[in-house]
Amino acid sequence: MAAGTKPFLQLDRVDKSFENDGKLEKVLQDITFEMEKGEVVSILGKSGCGKSTLLNLIGGFDKPSSGDVYFDGSIVTSPSRRAIMLFQDYGLFPWRTVKKNVELGLEPDKSLTPEARKKRALDYIKMVGLEESQNRFPSQLSGGMKQRVAIARALAIKPELILMDEPFAALDTFNRYYLQDELLKLQDQEKTNIVLVTHDIDEAVYLSDRVIIMDSNPGRIKKVVKINLSKPRDRSHGDFHYYRKVIFDSFRFAKNENQPEYNI
Amino acid sequence: MRRVFSKFTNILVAFVLVIVVWQLVIFIGDYPEALLPPPLAVGEAIVSLIRDGTFFVHLQVSMFRFASGYLSAVIAAVVLGLILGRLPLVWKVVDPIVQVLRPVAPVAWAPFIVLWFGIGNMPAIVTIFIAAFFPVLLSTVSAVKKIDRTYLKVAQNLELNQPALMYKIILPAAFPYIANGLHIAVGTGWIFLVAGEMIGAQSGLGYLIIDSRNALDLDFVLAGIIFIGVLGLILDKLIGFFEKWVGKQWGAQG
Fold first, then answer.
1. With contact defined as beta carbons under 8 Å apart, do A141 and A102 qualify?
2. Are B17 and B114 part of one and the same domain?
3. How would you classify residue A160: left for phi > 0, otherwise alpha for psi between -120 and 50, otherwise beta?
4. Would the CB atoms of B158 and A157 count as touching at under 8 Å?
5. pLDDT digits over A59-87, tens only?
6. Residue A251 has pLDDT above 80, yes or no
7. Is residue B254 part of a domain?
8. 3-class DSSP state for residue A136?
9. Residue A79 and residue B160: Cβ atoms within 8 Å?
10. Given CB atoms, is A47 within the 8 Å cutoff of chain B?
11. Domain boundaries, position B45
12. To which protein family does this belong (chain B) (predicted)?
């Protein structure tokens, strides 16, 4: 296949095993999917289904045991500024202020002058609504604010892909809803691709164009659900609940397969 | 304000208590002045050392030696520690060597120090260097090894390369633990100042003690001991302030 015809992101029969106490444990098995430009894809599954491992493979933090991850036509071998990961614990540097944390992401970019760097950092800090907190340290911020700093730092780099590892898991419901809306707005502005790992069905349906449902032991793709709803979505709308139910049922089926005696 | 005051009274009470016990021991034991000089004689020695300026001459010399030995040890140990902490395989080889060298009191090297570095300022500086080097090296290496994996992953993701990775991420991330080593090293370095100045020196607070001992002026020996003790306390407080100051610049962690 020529490089030009490759999809934006492609995983081709990816397997991943880890050695545990001398035994080889398979964490991911035969993961194959593609992602188009501009898409938001959620990877949904129970804890331990290897979804974070999958995200690490896409980001280049780890290498597949077999199979390949292609990003924009070439094999991913190491992390790059084109695909920025947002960590569950935010990954902010506590010795740098909000402003300096965002600027740090731009410092390796030699094409930016210090003035341009400061300006761009400030633009994105404004975008996530933290202008007044720009000189504060992460320890002085709430969890939601920290996550917004991390989002600003990621977006300021203008990556083509953002990888999110349960980004809102540590936040309370209201903060989570608020930040999910913010993220959708920003994604719409910047047209960034997003791969989101979550165990929250609502979050997956609310944010994504497609939901990849994972099964555990070893982690594999169980089902892919395309969400045909226009954004922004209404969490209380019937269609929203339809998709919620589709996904919910796919988890319940897994239970029934193992326990056929409960047939009604 | 009240806390400062109570801290001050605590010091005063401790000070008075020591003098009272000291004087009582002399009264009860009836020790001659040549064996244990009374507080008053030592006080007079302190005043006379300050008044004729001898103290300040020795102080200046000692502080210069301490600062050179300590700072060069800190710079060498931090730089080396940052590198070795990032090279676990190399550290596995270096670690046993360090563990063998570390328990050796720096004065044990005295014969070699004099042979290699001569007399004057160098023996004391080298002795303090050896004393301060190992605590800082060990705390730096373990600090670097303990750095949160997420910081390194983020740095990798941002394509932050050396040397920026070292001074923008690894040093500040490790600093709270390195500061521990800096603190310990001030203490050990200062302890070995006296020992260092016993080797081929003709000045300094350590020399003041040795010289007074040779002249059997035990009140001056005790005056020197008190000077060294009080200065050690002040240095310890200063490094505490330095740590707090850096902590403030770096978001007051810990």
1. no
2. no
3. alpha
4. yes
5. 889 888 888 888 888 888 889 888 999 98
6. no
7. no
8. coil
9. no
10. no
11. 39-249
12. Belongs to the binding-protein-dependent transport system permease family.
